[in-house]
């Protein structure tokens, strides 16, 4: 299952690219192959048609020459000669024809092998090329030639083209063109005019045509006999002259190309056109392998480009998927480190700004904040442990103070009884108040009690103070009755009253001096204040007290030296009250001191959470 996302993304990317490339390649190859087939077919058709046009022009040039000769008087005279004719006249006309008609034409056209004229009366005149020794024909030879020519031109008044020759051994290598000849005396046909041309001269017409290494042209007449074929083709097993089925296929073909497997097993493409002028069929043939070579090249090129593109696509897909999965794997490794308690930020990639980088940045921010929160929780737990230890220590100290409390209470009760017997109400009141205060202060629990309990404890304290100073002190209680049952910490209000007596009125208590106990409540806090109209405090003293209270929170066992005694003398000082409130309600609560200045008095406020009513 390792790297499952990477493998999926890589396979998806490669599959999409490969399928797209394969589909595009197949469609492109199919369409280009079909289009190339059509273009090759048109190209071959144009080649054959152009060659056919050139061949027709070549034949027509000789035909025009022959037509011009049909009106020659000497030729007409010759076919009108009787047989036997006057020897002199026969020789004269024959020589004139050779010298003035045939020879000039043959000199201008070296491809002309023979020109001759045979009359139906049996007379004949011949003219041969200079590179050929003129044969001597007997009367029997002339008779055979005449019979053959009359048969070839039977019922035809136009140009007739054949491959036979009057010269032995030349049939098949010449093109013989014949026309019937009329005489001067009548409009009837009196003879045959013929000329023979080397068939190989036709190859000069197609020098600019490229049919490949094994492509060739050949010409067949109306009966399928080969008029022209390139040298060496007649010895080939695939020669049309040696394959009757191929000849039949060519003769029956229309103007479309067709494929044919020759006798030697080679597949070839054939294209044929028939000349309406000569009746010949001009055939071009190309091996199918060469015909398909451009398509094969396209296929090879397409496969090569496709494979290269696929390899490049795989590399790109690899880079792409790695660019996605690597940051994810980095985040996973970071999470595993976090699971093991190692809050290590991730190394961000350089020169990369995308969603994954932002995710890594967010992860680092989350790790940083979680690390801070865990550190805070750890510190809070340590503080809570410290608070629990302090509470246990305070309760243990309170337990130590409970040395035989019943004995103390019984002794005080005995004193009260003697005071009543003696009729001293002052002693009775003081001892009763002192007993209640001792019983209240010796409770070991630090849990909250009500405001009313604390006020009752303060009243007992004030009773004792009244008898000590022999005067009534002005103590004003301005606590709304609905707040009397709100909870607060035990033994926190009386120490503030005692602190006022010690520090607010250092020169003694006068009739104009007073202390006000007030209380209030908001949505999130409940407070009880002790306000005096004593000597007040300077700003420096207020800052020093605030610093002492804050320092006491952080350094419980070591307080800096100060000119202010916050611990009290023989009782519970401000620091003790402040710390007790924080032990019960938390570090955000405690004492708050305010003073407008020297001579304006001081207000000490105990801030506690707003508790539910009992």
List key phrases describing it.
Beta-Lactamase, single chain, Heat Shock Protein 90, five-stranded antiparallel sheet, 14 helices, 17 strands, 50% helix, 614 residues, rod-shaped, alpha+beta, 3 domains
Structural class label: alpha+beta
| Percent strand | 15-25%
What characterizes the major β-sheet?
5 strands, antiparallel
Helical amount among residues, as a percent range? 40-55%
CATH-level-4 superfamily name of the largest domain: PAS domain
Task: Please write the CATH class name of the largest domain.
Answer: Alpha Beta
Q: What is the CATH topology assignment of the largest domain?
A: Beta-Lactamase
> How many extended strands?
17
Whole-number mean pLDDT: 79
Number of helices: 14
Which word captures the global form?
Answer: rod-shaped
SSE blueprint:
Blueprint: H1 4-69, H2 73-80, H3 87-108, E1 112-119, E2 124-128, H4 139-152, E3 160-162, E4 174-182, E5 189-198, E6 216-220, E7 226-228, H5 244-251, E8 258-261, E9 267-274, E10 281-287, H6 288-291, H7 293-339, H8 355-401, H9 405-422, H10 425-441, E11 448-450, H11 451-469, E12 474-478, E13 487-489, H12 493-504, E14 514-521, E15 526-532, H13 539-554, H14 574-585, E16 590-594, E17 602-608
Parallel strand pairs: 12-14
Antiparallel strand pairs: 1-2, 1-5, 3-4, 4-5, 6-7, 6-10, 8-9, 9-10, 11-13, 14-15, 15-17, 16-17
Overview of the structural elements:
The chain contains 14 helices and 17 strands. The chain is of the alpha+beta class and 614 residues long.
């Amino acid at each position: 299952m390792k790297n499952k996302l990477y493998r999926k993304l890589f396979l998806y990317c490669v599959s999409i690219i490969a399928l797209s490339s394969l589909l595009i390649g197949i469609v492109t190859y199919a369409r280009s192959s079909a289009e190339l087939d059509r273009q090759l077919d048109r190209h071959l058709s144009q080649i054959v048609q152009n060659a056919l046009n050139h061949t027709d022009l070549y034949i027509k040039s000789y035909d025009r020459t022959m037509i011009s000769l049909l009106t020659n008087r000497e030729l007409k005279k010759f076919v009108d000669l009787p047989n036997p004719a006057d020897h002199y006249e026969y020789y004269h006309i024959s020589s004139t024809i050779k010298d003035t008609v045939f020879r000039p034409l043959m000199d201008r056209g070296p491809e002309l092998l023979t020109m001759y004229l045979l009359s139906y009366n049996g007379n004949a005149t011949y003219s041969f090329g200079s590179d050929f020794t003129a044969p001597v024909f007997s009367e029997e030879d002339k008779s055979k030639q005449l019979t053959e020519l009359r048969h070839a031109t039977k019922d035809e008044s136009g140009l007739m083209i054949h491959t036979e020759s009057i010269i032995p051994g030349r049939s098949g290598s010449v093109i013989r063109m014949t026309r019937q000849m009329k005489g001067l005396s009548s409009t009837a046909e009196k003879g045959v005019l013929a000329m023979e041309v080397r068939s190989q001269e036709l190859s000069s017409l197609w020098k600019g045509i490229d049919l490949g290494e094994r492509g060739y042209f050949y010409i067949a007449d109306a009966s399928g006999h080969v008029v022209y074929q390139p040298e060496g083709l007649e010895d080939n097993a695939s020669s049309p002259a040696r394959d009757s089925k191929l000849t039949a296929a060519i003769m029956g073909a229309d103007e479309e190309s067709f494929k044919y497997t020759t006798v030697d097993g080679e597949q070839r493409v054939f294209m044929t056109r028939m000349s309406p002028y000569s009746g010949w069929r001009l055939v071009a043939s190309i091996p199918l392998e060469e015909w398909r070579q451009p398509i094969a090249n396209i296929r090879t090129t397409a496969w090569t480009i496709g494979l290269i593109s696929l390899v490049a696509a795989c590399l790109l897909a690899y880079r792409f998927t790695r660019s996605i999965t690597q940051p994810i794997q980095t985040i996973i490794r970071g999470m595993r480190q976090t699971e093991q308690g190692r809050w290590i930020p991730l190394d961000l990639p350089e020169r990369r700004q995308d969603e994954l980088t932002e995710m890594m940045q967010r992860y680092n921010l989350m790790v940083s904040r979680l690390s801070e929160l865990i550190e805070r929780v750890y510190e809070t737990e340590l503080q809570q442990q410290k608070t629990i230890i302090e509470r246990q220590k305070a309760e243990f100290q309170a337990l130590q103070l409970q040395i035989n409390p019943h004995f103390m209470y019984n002794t005080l009760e005995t004193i009260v009884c003697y005071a009543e017997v003696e009729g001293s109400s002052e002693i009775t009141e003081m001892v009763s108040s002192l007993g209640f205060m001792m019983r209240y202060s010796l409770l070991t629990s630090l849990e909250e009690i009500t405001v009313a309990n604390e006020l009752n404890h303060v009243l007992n304290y004030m009773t004792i103070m009244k008898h000590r100073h022999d005067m009534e002190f002005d103590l004003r209680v301005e606590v709304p009755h609905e707040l009397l049952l709100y909870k607060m910490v035990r033994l926190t209000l009386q120490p503030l009253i005692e602190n006022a007596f010690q520090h607010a009125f250092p020169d003694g208590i006068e009739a104009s001096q007073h202390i006000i106990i007030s209380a209030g409540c908001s949505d999130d806090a409940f407070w009880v204040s002790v306000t005096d109209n004593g000597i007040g405090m300077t700003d420096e003293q207020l800052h020093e007290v605030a610093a002492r209270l804050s320092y006491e929170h952080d350094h419980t066992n070591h307080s800096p030296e100060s000119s202010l005694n916050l611990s009290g003398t023989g009782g519970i000082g401000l620091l003790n009250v402040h710390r007790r409130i924080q032990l019960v309600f938390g570090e955000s609560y405690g004492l708050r001191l305010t003073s407008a200045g020297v001579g304006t008095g001081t207000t000490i406020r105990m801030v506690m959470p707003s508790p539910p009513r009992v």
